[in-house]
Write a structure and sequence with these properties.
Elements: E1 10-17, H1 23-33, H2 54-59, E2 66-72, E3 75-81, H3 89-95, E4 101-107, H4 114-125, E5 129-135, H5 144-158, E6 169-173, E7 178-180, H6 194-203, E8 216-218, E9 221-225, E10 229-238, E11 240-242, E12 246-250, E13 256-260, E14 264-268, E15 271-275, E16 277-279, E17 283-287, E18 297-300, E19 317-322, H7 338-351, E20 356-360, E21 363-368, H8 371-383, E22 388-390, E23 394-395, E24 398-400, E25 403-416, H9 420-429, E26 433-439, E27 444-452, H10 453-456, H11 459-466, E28 472-482, E29 494-497, E30 501-502, H12 505-514, E31 515-517, E32 524-525, E33 530-534, E34 540-542, H13 572-578, E35 583-587, E36 592-596, H14 601-607
């Protein structure tokens, strides 16, 4: 990997797609086939090399955008791997401005999906030159001709100017590192990704820049390590930068700070390479600028000019997050005070551009782009040793012309034909409007709905349960509509622990007859904690710590062994979906506990 002083030999490309269509796997192939790694390096045998975070590997999705670079002949190719899930679209918005072209990856069976539409629209508005790759053509359900027609319709709908309607199409099996210019007769032939490299070089324009003008760079990403501290990542819009050079940091509030660049780095695979100079058109990582934030400009020290600030779409969901107030506070975590939580959220705002944080009494109101966006943040805090409590997710509304507006989503559901009735009944109860319904391949029915974001809360887990895990659903925010009527409560009441203590099999046997238990025997619970789901619509207080009284005539073993159904353990996302307005979720590094916001039973009754 060498520094390229000639901007015509630089290509900046973003990889965009719907979730699970094969973006990161294709980047793996580009990294390996460009000889970025030695043959004996561990990365040559790894998959999803760019998904470096624990949650990314566990969930199988890209959460944060990553920048890498490969060398192909005389060309330096900077690659931006973006998330495919709508909840992390802020990552797409902040990084796509660094690219001149994009690889749009589309599944050969699924075709364009909601997030395909979102990322492509962002790319075309930013003037990126698109290259289409129809991936996973080895699937049995692959339908190349139909997918090509669907893509043509999508481009016709989204194109900003006529040139964008003319795009090259390639065909690939990303996990095998193969691509073709036309559908191959034999998938076993000795193809590689050469056609993709050639497409990037020939079809993506070089950056249109002038290195003779004063230095200018928009901060698009940040990174840290213990060696150099903060790295400021962006594409140099004009000019050039050397290590040790004086620059001006143009803040969002209009103020300017004089500072100095300590070192200049470039990407080479997943490594950083220190270079003496960065030139216009290239993506660099600068150290020494500790106060820089995403969306701000680093400009020439003598003639500073600020670039337009990044515009990020508004959040759609908000959630209360505050210090834990349960009787078990401070027993399972390292950080538990409001000050510690506030400092951690402030740090998160530096890189998580789709997030908003406001003070809310003793806690905070955290707004994000969806349930997954918020749950990833909650899980990150939990793993770092924080404990806190969160409330039910609520939609973020806005007021226009004196009327309250709420976000609306397009929901696409794919489900086996025998479960269509179940889906329609659930969506009907949530006042969703069916826009389209048609049968696709192999007995799968595709349903397209329009519904409010409020109605989406909790839907995924309900449908997964009711369809035996066969449903596939994807949604995308499409706009706003006047705030609708309150939705009816779709969940039964809960079983509430009467007192603090340790659960017993004897007491849980009684609780099982009243509903579904969320706790097992020998667990610590406190009064007001939710320990199960009632069979009826009202809440029921129950003593799950009661022991069997012994007499002279009866020993503890005389009635035989108690047979209990294993407790139902809810995931973090399921807990967020489950809680109602008067309930909270207690989150610690070791436990997730559902509870009533008011633990005192007498005060709860007065509040009704």
């Amino acid at each position: 990997m060498f520094m390229n002083q000639d901007a015509t030999k630089i290509r900046n490309i973003a990889i965009i797609a719907h979730v699970d269509h094969g973006k990161t796997t294709l980047v793996d192939g580009l990294l390996k086939q460009s000889k970025t790694f030695r043959d004996n390096q561990a990365e040559m045998t790894q998959n999803l090399i760019m998904d470096s975070g624990d949650q990314e590997r566990e969930r199988g999705i890209t959460i944060t955008a990553k920048v890498t670079a490969v060398q192909h002949d005389d060309y330096r190719i900077n690659i931006i791997d973006t998330p495919g899930h709508a909840d992390f679209s802020g990552e797409v918005e902040r990084t796509i401005n660094m690219a001149d072209g994009c690889l749009l990856i589309v599944d050969a069976q699924e075709g364009p999906m909601p997030q395909t539409k979102f990322v492509l629209s962002k790319a075309l508005v930013n003037g990126l030159k698109p290259i289409v790759i129809i991936n996973k053509i080895d699937k049995q359900g692959a339908r190349l001709a139909e997918v090509e027609d669907e893509l043509a319709d999508l481009f016709l709908e989204l194109a900003v100017h006529e040139d964008q309607l003319h795009y090259p199409v390639y065909y690939a099996v990303g996990r095998e590192g193969k691509a073709w210019t036309s559908p191959p007769q034999d998938l076993e032939d000795k193809a590689d990704l050469s056609v993709v490299f050639d497409a990037i070089v020939n079809d993506v324009p070089p950056p249109s820049v002038d290195k003779t003008k004063p230095f200018q760079m928009l901060v698009s990403a940040l990174a840290w390590d213990n060696f150099k501290g903060k790295y400021v990542i962006g594409r140099i819009t004009q000019g050039k930068i050397k290590e040790g050079e004086q620059v001006t940091l143009c803040k969002k509030d209009g103020s300017q700070i004089k500072t100095k660049v300590e070192t200049v780095f470039m990407s080479s695979g997943i490594a950083r390479i220190q270079v003496p100079e960065g030139v216009a058109g290239d993506i660099v990582q600068l150290t020494g600028i500790a106060d820089a934030q995403i969306g701000e400009t680093i400009a020439d020290g003598v003639n500073p000019e600020a670039l337009p600030i990044l515009e990020i779409e508004a959040p759609t969901l908000k959630i209360y997050l505050g210090p834990n107030t349960s009787p078990f506070k401070g027993k399972e975590a390292e950080f538990s005070t409001g000050r510690q939580i506030g400092e951690r959220l402030k740090k998160e705002l530096e890189t998580n551009v789709g997030l908003r944080v406001e003070d809310e009494n003793i806690g905070f109101l955290v707004s994000g782009r969806g349930e997954l966006h918020l749950s990833v943040l909650i899980e990150s805090l939990r793993r770092e040793g924080y404990e806190f409590e969160v409330g039910r997710p609520q939609v973020v509304t806005k007021v226009e012309n004196g009327k309250t507006q709420e976000p609306v989503e397009e929901l696409i559901i794919e489900v086996p034909a025998n479960h269509v009735g179940t889906v329609q009944m659930e969506l009907g109860a949530r006042r969703a409007v069916l826009k389209e319904q048609f049968a696709s391949s192999k007995g799968i029915t595709k349903l397209v709905y329009e519904l409010s974001t409020r109605a989406l809360l909790g839907l995924r887990n309900v449908l997964i349960t009711n369809t035996q895990g066969t449903v596939i659903m994807n949604s995308l925010m499409t706009g706003y509509q006047p705030l609708g009527a309150t939705l009816q409560k779709l969940r039964n009441g809960v079983l509430i622990a009467w007192e603090t203590g340790i659960t017993t099999p004897y007491a849980l046997q009684t609780a099982e007859s009243r509903g579904i238990c969320f706790v097992g025997p020998a667990e610590k619970v406190y009064g007001g904690q939710i320990v199960g789901l009632n069979k009826r619509s009202d809440d029921l207080e129950i003593n799950v710590c009661k022991t069997k009284h012994l007499t002279n005539m009866r020993s503890s073993s005389s009635d035989g062994t108690v047979q209990l159904t294993p407790a139902t353990i809810l995931s973090l996302e399921q807990c967020l979906d489950f809680i109602e307005k008067d309930e909270l979720l207690e989150v610690t590094p070791k436990s997730l506990r559902l509870r009533k916001a008011e633990l005192d039973p007498l005060k709860r009754k007065r509040q009704k």
